[in-house]
Specification:
With 202 residues, the chain is of the alpha+beta class. It has a domain of 138 residues: 2-Layer Sandwich (Ribosomal Protein S5, domain 2). It contains 7 helices and 8 strands; from the N terminus they run ααβββαββββαβααα. It is elongated, with a radius of gyration of 29 Å.
């Protein structure tokens, strides 16, 4: 009986064998925690995903079209459209297209420097600067695109077509047409100086 009791008392010593498994879980948790710490240079948002079809000899071939916006929440933003066999492939292709077509927008006091109205095919977008504390007064596609930039106060209006792709490109064109405030404020004193010199010569 003594021998049996000794075997029973020895059995609990095998319990610490579970410690490496705990350590392994901690290592896995550490690895998982380390991956999100790497900051992304650009933020990617999917605006819309459509299923498109093409009629072929054997029937219809279905694909997916993704509309993606990419921005660094500062002064760079881009829009891309691409198709793929599945949703992930379409989003990946559209993201690459958006990163290749980035534009730099002038941001002044967290708003745009001046009004801009652009018409792209059937869509028409109007952007206007707003006072601090106003927020982004926009809806749908325009709000999503402005959200990945450094603009915090904006007034906008979308007119005409409701096609999301056209509205996205119209918004990008409106942002691209913005002129920095330094360029159109400093131009007035130069013209004034030229006018004064011309009068002096007379």
């Amino acid at each position: 009986m003594a021998e049996t009791t000794e075997t029973k008392t020895v059995a609990p010593t095998s319990a610490p064998a579970q410690r490496p498994s705990r350590g392994g879980n901690q290592r896995r948790d550490d690895r998982r925690n380390q991956t999100p710490e790497e900051p992304k240079e650009f933020e990617e948002l999917v605006i819309n995903i459509d299923r498109v079809s093409r009629v072929v000899k054997g029937g219809r071939r279905f694909r997916f079209k993704a509309l993606v916006v990419v921005g660094d929440r500062k002064t760079k933003v881009g829009v891309g459209v691409a198709k793929g066999a599945d949703v992930q492939a379409a989003v990946a292709k559209a993201t690459d297209v958006a990163k290749k077509n980035l534009i730099t927008i002038p941001v002044t006091n967290e708003t745009v420097p001046h009004d801009s109205e652009v018409r792209f095919t059937g869509a028409q977008v109007l952007l206007k600067p707003a006072a601090p504390g106003t927020g982004i007064i926009a809806g749908g596609v325009v709000r999503t695109i402005i959200g990945v930039t450094g603009i915090r106060n904006l007034l906008s209006k979308s007119l005409g077509s409701t096609n999301k792709v056209n509205i996205a490109y119209a918004t990008i064109e409106a942002l691209k047409s913005m002129v920095p405030r330094d360029q159109w404020i400093n131009s007035t004193p130069r013209t004034a100086k030229k006018a004064v010199k011309s009068e002096e010569t007379k």
